[in-house]
Amino acid sequence: MVEVTEVRKVYRQGDVEVPALSGVSLSIDPGAFLALAGPSGSGKTTLLNLIGGLDMPDGGQITVDGRDLGALSATALTELRLHRIGFVFQAYNLIPVLTAVENTEYVMLLQGVPKKERRERSMAILDEVGLSGLYHRKPAELSGGQQQRVAVARAVVSGPSIVLADEPTANLDSSTGEGLLAMMREMNEARGVTFVFSTHDAMVMEAARKVIRMKDGRLDGDRVQ
């Protein structure tokens, strides 16, 4: 599903270069439920953003779903993100003026899915994530856990090959976080969607089938369970 080869990323602060990733290589199999784990500054979120094509590396190669991201035009990269990659952001990134069902529909709207079909699919996935009856609530009328469930529903409803989740439990209490992880694990097993998390939460690491640890922009070992 994902092949990362000798990837480097450097951020520049004035005249100072700050290395974020230093020659990272890894493979992620289809159907994985994997955590990139490490402390703040370890490079895990940077790597997640590069895999999602939200940023470009300064060296090395990233292949997602058989496509070399560095060889794609801006239009082709946008199409790949739209149709093959789902995103779950730490801050949820829901559109405040849209309801839960409208937020869930949004990616399918961009994909050109007919209105009736996208509404039916959105309501079905909201039922699946435990938000039946809350279709018409806006983000401000939902709890943090409910907003994150809408974000997950939006990420998976359009049928991506891979979902990238940045610190998905960071703003949730432990009980809500456990429920969210169980829901995503069930989706992973039932739908075959690949999930990749960036995290420093032990609960996420315990839920993942594979953990790749990062430190100072490099891999620091992995664990399979």
TrEMBL record:
One GO term describing the cellular component: membrane protein complex
Domain (ABC transporter): residue spans on this chain: 2-224
Residues spanning the membrane: none
Molecular functions per Gene Ontology: ATP binding; ATP hydrolysis activity; transmembrane transporter activity
SUPFAM superfamilies: P-loop containing nucleoside triphosphate hydrolases (SSF52540)
Source domain of life: Bacteria
Alphabetical list of PROSITE patterns matching this protein: ABC_TRANSPORTER_1, ABC_TRANSPORTER_2
InterPro entries named in the record: AAA+_ATPase, ABC_transporter-like_ATP-bd, ABC_transporter-like_CS, ABC_transpr_LolD-like, MacB-like_ATP-bd, P-loop_NTPase
Keywords from the named record: ATP-binding, Nucleotide-binding, Transport
Similarity annotation: Belongs to the ABC transporter superfamily. Macrolide exporter (TC 3.A.1.122) family.
Name of the molecule in the record: Abc transporter-like
Organism: Desulfoluna butyratoxydans
